[in-house]
Amino acid sequence: MRIVFMGTPDFAVPSLQLLLASGYEVVAVVTQPDRPKGRKKTLTPPPVKEAALSLGIPVLQPERMRNPEAVAELAEYKPDLIVTAAYGQILPKVVLELPRLGCINVHGSLLPKYRGGAPIQRSIINGESETGVTIMYMAEGLDTGDMISSVALPILDEDTSGTMFDKLSLAGAKLLGETLPSIIDGSAEAVPQAEVEATYAPNLNRDDERLDWSKSARALFNQVRGLSPMAGAFTYLNGEVFKIRECEPVLGRSGNAESGKIVSADANGIVVQTGDGMLLLKEIQPAGKRAMAVGEWIKGARIEPGTKFGEGEER
Question: Pfam families attached here (predicted)?
Fold first, then answer.
């Protein structure tokens, strides 16, 4: 059994580690190229690359897996099976047909719901009460292959994308360990996905991060935690970006206050009127500054009566 593992972020590391701990022969790891990161744009290797090198596994980093040179280099490792987890590229047919046992993917949703690159974030943003991991055979479409196994996990109010990434990465590794024997001995039963039930989770963009105060407090709460701790949800305050890192919904309405208006602000938090209910901001990140508790920021801030979030544009 010669396995090639493909993955890029932290989510994929436990699955790689599981393969090694279970005694499987991982002959190579394929991951995305090193990318600039942080304000200083320091060239940084993906977490999977760091894990693979620490385990003594050869690492391939093609810019595009569709390039003939990349396919030829991969073929030299003669994989019996390719295992992917959040690799970040759609594999071409020539790669899918390379291993005799096929290619399988550890996907962070309960397929056919939330196909695509941001299933965990969007399941939280959309207010889902559960998500999970599906192990599937890979096909040429976007997460369209037949399903082999799955496990469901609840999404709690205290969960963020960060906590669910951690939970699902561990659950995915465990499920991979339980599923691999049946794939290897040919007893795995794959079930086609119901296309009529399919939904999509495209990668997030700037518009997904901007808060619309006319929405309900609950919807904004889901949006904030679905974007935490990565990019973070943002609004504008006095024409500058103002990120919301942690918040919670508050029932009720403050008179005839407009959506986005600050109802109160003290060391306990900033209360903002929304389209339905109020939102208590607990941790924020003003433009050009680090994330901090509202109580820390409020000491030096001046909030004029009638101040509203969301007005103006970036300077």
Answer: Formyl_trans_C (PF02911), Formyl_trans_N (PF00551)
Give the CA-trace dihedral at 55, 57, 58, 59, to 10 degrees: -60
- Domain ranges in the chain are 2-197, 206-298
> Binding-site residues, please?
109-112
Q: Which residues of 72-106 are buried (b: 16+ CB within 10 A; e: fewer)?
A: eebeebebbbbbbbbbbbebbeebbebbebbbbbb
Name the phi and psi angles at 247, rounded to 5. Answer: -160, 175
| pLDDT score of 313 | 58
CATH architecture of 206-298: Roll (3.10)
> Using CA atoms, how far apart are residues 296 and 313, in angstroms rounded to an integer?
25
Cβ neighbours, 10 Å, residue 40: 6
| Rounded Cα gap, residues 130 and 254, in angstroms | 32
Query: First CA to last CA across the chain, in angstroms?
Result: 57
Say which CATH class 2-197 falls into: alpha beta
What residues form the annotated binding site for (6S)-5,6,7,8-tetrahydrofolate? Answer: 109-112
Q: Which residue has the tokens 């997030």?
A: 204
pTM of the model: 0.93
Give the pLDDT of residue 40: 82
Amino acid in position 59:
V
Tens of pLDDT, residue by residue over 280-294, are 999 999 988 899 999
* Residue 52 near residue 210, CB atoms below 8 Å: no
User: Which amino acid, residue 170?
Assistant: L
DSSP class of residue 204 equals P
- Neighbouring CB atoms inside 10 A of 117's CB total 17
